[in-house]
Amino acid sequence: MQPSFDLDGRVALVTGGSSGLGRAMAMALAGAGAAVVVAARRREALEESVAMIQAQGGRAAALEADLADPAGLDAVARQAAEPFGTVTILVNAAGVNLRQPIDEVDLASWQLTLQLHLGTPFFLSRALVPGMRDKGYGRIINLASLQSQRAFANSAPYGAGKGGIVQLTRAMAEAWSKDGINANAIAPGFFPTELTAPVFDDPQTAEAMAAKTAIGRNGTLEDIAGPTVFLASPAAGYVTGQTLFVDGGFTAR
């Protein structure tokens, strides 16, 4: 029996789909057959993601939204279903890392970071669960991090959020898996994105991070595609509540 990685007929919502890992994950889902809605604040970047997906033969639509606004998440969930129908795959990839020294973290920065990394994934997922339940199929993919297990300097709020998302993923799985809605997380290593620009802008730092992996290199955006499609697909039907580290063996050492 061959496992099914086919997402034809599925509709995916990818937050943070305007760049970086979110864009790469959206392109991977579209390549596997899903119609994809990418959501973020920057209209021009969203339209670029849509154009890239369409150029590879996929279907996509842009949803401009402030995902840090908790009052607007129910509207995001409703609007995400308008272009293609009920969303049955959700990728919570939107995030921010303000990189403040721990003694300089202010309340606004703390609240923004924790909202994007914990509050938004929780309330947006919960808003989409009824539609997934009606379809008898749901896949929630949260974004964890190396900082779900490791501490890095100047990242206390980010690390707190990424530690929390691992447990939130388990809680989602416990609550919703019985309805066919599986929740898992992907914890990327160092990939070249806007969020990790301070690392990749310094070749020595990038090389040092690569040397800490078992594979001996940092990630490329293509490396995130397979894990994303797997966790979104019927092939992952018995996988839930898990965090998959896609880090080249960084945390294995």
Automatic annotation (TrEMBL):
Pfam hit, one: adh_short_C2
Give the family from UniProt: Belongs to the short-chain dehydrogenases/reductases (SDR) family.
Q: Which GO terms describe its molecular function?
A: oxidoreductase activity, acting on the CH-OH group of donors, NAD or NADP as acceptor
Would I find Oxidoreductase among this entry's keywords?
Answer: yes
Q: Which InterPro entries match?
A: NAD(P)-bd_dom_sf, Sc_DH/Rdtase_CS, SDR_fam
Presence of keyword rRNA-binding: no
Top-level taxonomic group: Bacteria
Protein name, UniProt field: Gluconate 5-dehydrogenase
**Keywords for the protein's UniProt record, in alphabetical order:** Oxidoreductase
Q: Coiled-coil ranges per the record?
A: none
Show the PANTHER family listed in the entry.
Answer: 3-OXOACYL-[ACYL-CARRIER-PROTEIN] REDUCTASE (PTHR42760:SF133), SHORT-CHAIN DEHYDROGENASES/REDUCTASES FAMILY MEMBER (PTHR42760)
